Predict the structure.
Amino acid sequence: MTSPEEAAVTVEAGPPVVAAAEPTVAVRHVTRTFGEVTALSDVSLDVAPGSFVSLIGPSGCGKSTLLRVIADLLEPSSGEVVVAGKTPHRARTDRDYGMVFQKATLFDWRTVRRNVELPLELMGWDRTRRRARADEMLALVELTDFAKHRPAQLSGGMQQRVAIARALAFSPKLLLMDEPFGALDEITRERLNLELLDIWTKTRTTVVFVTHSIPEAVFLSTDVVVMSPRPGRVLRRIPVDLPRPRDTGTRELDRYFELVTEVRETLRGAGLL
Amino acid sequence: MSRRGRTAINLVAILAGLAVLWEAYRAFALATGNMWPGTDVALPVAVRGSGNAQQFPHVWEPVLALGRPYRGGGETLGAFLLGQVGYTLREVLAGFVLGSLLGFLLGTLFAHSRLAERSLMPYVIASQTVPFIAFAPILVVGFNSLESFPRWSGVAALSMYLVFFPMTVNTLRGLRSAPATAEELMRSYAASWWTRLWKLRVPAAVPYLFVGMKIGATAAVVGAIVGELSAPSSQGLGAAIFSFGRVSNNSVQLFATTLVAGLVGIASFSTVALLERAVLRAYAGAGPAR
Amino acid sequence: MTAALLTEVRRLRPPSALPAALTALAVLVAWEVVVRVFAIRPILLPAPSAIAATFVADVPRLVRALVVTGRAALLGFVLGSLGGFAVGAAATRWRVLREGLIPVGVVFGAVPIVATAPIFNLWLGALSIWSNVAVVALVVFFPMMINTITGLASASDSHRELMRSYAAPQRQVFAKLLLPASLPFVFGALRVSAALSVIAAVVSDFFGGFRDSAGFFIKTLMANADYTGSWATVVALCLFGLLLYGAVALAERWSVPWKEQ
Ligand SMILES: Nc1ncnc2c1ncn2[C@@H]1O[C@H](COP(=O)(O)OP(=O)(O)OP(=O)(O)O)[C@@H](O)[C@H]1O
Ligand SMILES: [Mg+2]
C-alpha cells in the first residue's frame, strides 16, 4: 500500500461539486483525530438536497467517523459541518436525520412495530398516530406481517429493513447509513438495494451511504465519493449518470460497468486495490 | 492508575463512607434522644447502653473489645475467638474438601452419562431453589447421634452439602466446555475416554471448578455457622454469636464476633480466589464466560 | 457466594420431566424400603410415609409456621430487592459508586450475612418481625444491587448511540433503553433472592424469636425428639421456597418475554 502522500499525488482530485441549492450537508475542512490517529484530514463534502451520496474507501479510512461527525455523535477536531442549514447539534436535537447502522440495533424487548415507533415515542407522538405511521413504514419495507414479531424472530435482512423503517418513520430530511447491508448475503443485499432505491424515490430523502461494495455504490448513488486510506480524505467524487428508475437491468448497462471500473481504477490508482 | 488500584480505593472509600454514616447516625441519635427531631417518633434503632452493653457502639469499639478479657477476667475476647475460629475452620475445611470432591465426582458422572444428568440434575437444581439450610438442626442432631463421629462432623456435613451443589453444576458445565473440535481431535488420536477426560476436559473445566469452589468457600462458612447455632453444641463462631446474642449486656462482644465471622467468610473466599488466580495464571487459559 | 450464584441460576434450564419424575419415585421407594429394612432410627432418617403422615396431621401448625416465617421472607424479599435496585440505579449516576459498589457487593457476598440476625434482634427486638425482615432484606440487597448495576450497564454502545442520534433526554434513555435492558439481570437477582430470602428467614428463626416460626419448630421439635414433625416443617418450607421461586419465574416470563427460548 502506498503512503497517503503518494496517493494524493498520483490521483487527480476532482473539483468539489457544489450544488445550486443550499446543500443538505456541508462538510468544510473537517479534521478529526483520535489521540495519535488522524481519522479524517481536511475533508470537504457537499451533499445536495435529494441526492444519494455513497462514501467508499478502505477499511479504517474514516467513513464511519465522517458519518458520525455529520450526525453529531462525534465532534470534529477542526473544520465546520452544516446540516440542514444548522449546526449538527441543532440538527440532531431537531431530529433532522435518521441513522441506520451496520447492525440493526433493534431493541430485543420491543416488537417490530414498537421498534419502529421508538423515535416517534421520543418525539411525543400520540399512540394512534404512532401506530398508523409505523404500519405505513412497515408496509414500505414489506414487513406488515411481522409487526408483532420480536427482532430475534427475524432474519438479518428483515431486521435491517426494520431499522430502515425506524429511521424513516419520522420523515427525516437526511438519512445516514453506515454499511447497512454490510452483514448481509449478496442476494438479500441486491434485493434491499432495489427496495432502498424505491423508498428513496418515494420519500425524496437525502442519503449519505457508507459501503464497501463498488457495485452497490454505483447502482444506488447519484454521486460516489472515494476516500483515501488513513488519514481519510476525499480522493474523488464521481457523479453517476445512470438512467432512472434503476432496476436489475441497470446492472447490465455498459455505462454501469464503465462507472464500476472508474471507481475501481480510482481506488487502484490510490494503491488501494 | 491501574484498574485494580482504583477498585481498591473505591472499595475503601465506600467502606469508610459506611463507617462515617454509622457514626453520624450514632451522633444524631444521641443528640436527638433517639427521636426524629421535632416529633415523638422513635428512630428505628436506639443508641443506648454503656460499656459492653452498648446497642450501637462506635465502629472501633468491637475492635478494641478483642483485646480485653471477654468475661470477668482471664482470656481476651480475641484469644477466645481465635479458638472458636479454629474450631469452625475445621468444620469449614472438612465440609469444603468433601463437598468439592463429591461435587466433582457427581459432576463427572453427569458429564459422562446423559441419563444420570437428566434424571438427577433437576433435583440438584431444584434443591437450590429450596431453603435446604433448614435441614441444619436435623442434619446436625442426626449426625451427632452417631457415636462414632466427632461432634463437629455434623456441622461439617451441613457445610459439605452446601458446597457440593455449586461444585456439581460447575464441574458439569466445565467438563462440557471443551470445544467439540478438540474432542474430535483427541478421538482422531484414538485417545481413550480417560485420556480425553484428564488431558482435555478437566483442564478445560478448571476455571469453572474455581467458580464452584468460590461459591462453596462462602457457603461452607455459612453452613458451619448456622450448623453450630442449630445444635446444642457449644463451640465455634456460630455458637459464640448465639450465646453473645442471647445476653444483651454482651452486645459489644456480639458485634466483635459477627465481625470476625465476616472476616472468616472473606478469608475463606479470598483463599480460593487467590488460588484461582495462581492456577489460572499458570495456565494462562481463558476463564469461563460470565 | 451470591454474586457467583447469580450467574449460576441464570443459566439453569427447565429439565425434561420424565426421567426426573421416575427418579423421584425411585428415590422415595428406595428411601422407604431402606428405612424399614435396616430399621433406621428416625433421628437419622424417618420414613417418607411417616413424614407425609405428620405433614397431613400437622397442616394447621405448618400453615401457622409458614405465615410467620413466610411473611418475614416476603417482606424482606420485597424491601431488600427494592433497596438493592434503588442503590444500584443511583450508582449508575456516580462513577465512584458504579465502580466501587461491585467490589463492595463481592466482599459482602463472601460474608455470612445471616450471622447478623442477633444484631438485628438486639436493635429491633427479637420479638419484632422487623428484625427478621431486616436480615432477609440485607441478604437480598447485595445480589440485587450488583445485578442492577450490571444490568443497567448492559445496554450496548450502539444502542446508546442510537438513542443519542434521536437526541433522547437522559430520562428517556433510562426508561426506554437502560431499564428494559437490565430486566433480565434484575430477574436473575430476584430468582436467586427468592431462595435466599427463605433461607435467611429460617436462619433468623434459628437465632431465636417467634415461638411459632418454621425455624423454631424445626429446631425445637428436633430437640424434643419429634423428628418427623421437624422433617414435615422442612418439607413445608421447601414447598414455600419452590412456590416463591415459581412465582418469580412466572413474573419473569411475563415481563421478559423476549428472553424465552
Ligand atoms: N472512538 C474511537 N477511538 C479511537 N479511534 C477511533 C475511534 N473511532 C475510530 N477510530 C479510528 O479512526 C479510524 C477511522 O475509523 P472509522 O471507523 O471511521 O473507519 P471506517 O472507514 O468506517 O472503517 P470500516 O470500513 O472498517 O468501518 C480508524 O483508524 C479507527 O481506529
Ligand atoms: Mg465503519
